[in-house]
Amino acid sequence: MKKLLLILLGPILLGPAGYFAGQMLAPEPPAPEPAAVKAHVTKEEILYKMPIGKFTVQVLQPHSILHLLMDIDVYIAGASNFERLNGASGRTRLRDATVSIISDMAESSLWLEPGEEVNIDQALLAEDIVRKLHLRFQSVRTGRINEFHAERSLRN
User: Fold this and answer.
1) pTM of the model
2) For 10-60, how does the pLDDT look when each residue is reduced to its tens digit (9 = 90+)?
3) Three-state secondary structure string covering the chain
4) Which one of 93, 110, 122, 127 has the lowest number of neighbouring Cβ atoms within 10 Å?
5) Cα–Cα distance between 58 and 154 in angstroms, integer?
6) What angle do CA 125, 127, 132 make, to 5 degrees?
7) In angstroms, rounded to a whole number, what is the distance separating the alpha carbons of residues 112 and 130?
């Protein structure tokens, strides 16, 4: 009879005691952030550097040919996106898209006036290339031109 009484009364008496003791020992939840602060806080993305390579572009102008040499790196957001694009086919697609974008920019007659190749803003050029790359590859966040050379030769 004592065993039966202990089996029935033990959980009935010790259950609520454990519940209230657990609430006293548990840490307090953090205070909620104001909505204005929460809206401006974004999770920081980890960017992975992917060298695309060197490109040589010829810009044909009426009396001369401008040869541009660029070494470009892009930064990919997220490890899974980087792994997906880091393979042979991913790099090839990214490089082909970059060649296409640079060629389209070079064909534009408004892109670079004669004699202005020394004054070209490399940061702005990299932003334009990355903006157009981002339309095709959503994980491309930013880019950098490591090397930039411009040489002009007369056209025959």
Assistant:
1) 0.65
2) 888 888 888 888 878 887 777 776 655 444 445 677 899 999 999 888 877
3) CHHHHHHHHHHHHHHHHHHHHHHHHCCCCCCCCCHHHHHHCCCCCCEEEEEEEEEEEEEECCCEEEEEEEEEEEEEECHHHHHHHCCHHHHHHHHHHHHHHHHHHHHCCCCCCCCCHHHCCHHHHHHHHHHHHHHHCCCEEEEEEEEEEEEEEECC
4) 110
5) 12
6) 100
7) 18
Name the CATH topology of 47-154. Tetrahydropterin Synthase; Chain A (3.30.479)
Tokens of residue 49, six digits: 């550097």
Residues in the chain, overall count: 156
Q: Which residue has the tokens 């966040």?
A: 141
Q: Where are the domains of the chain?
A: 2-33, 47-154
Each residue's pLDDT tens digit, 52-100: 999 888 877 778 888 889 999 999 988 888 888 888 888 899 999 999 9
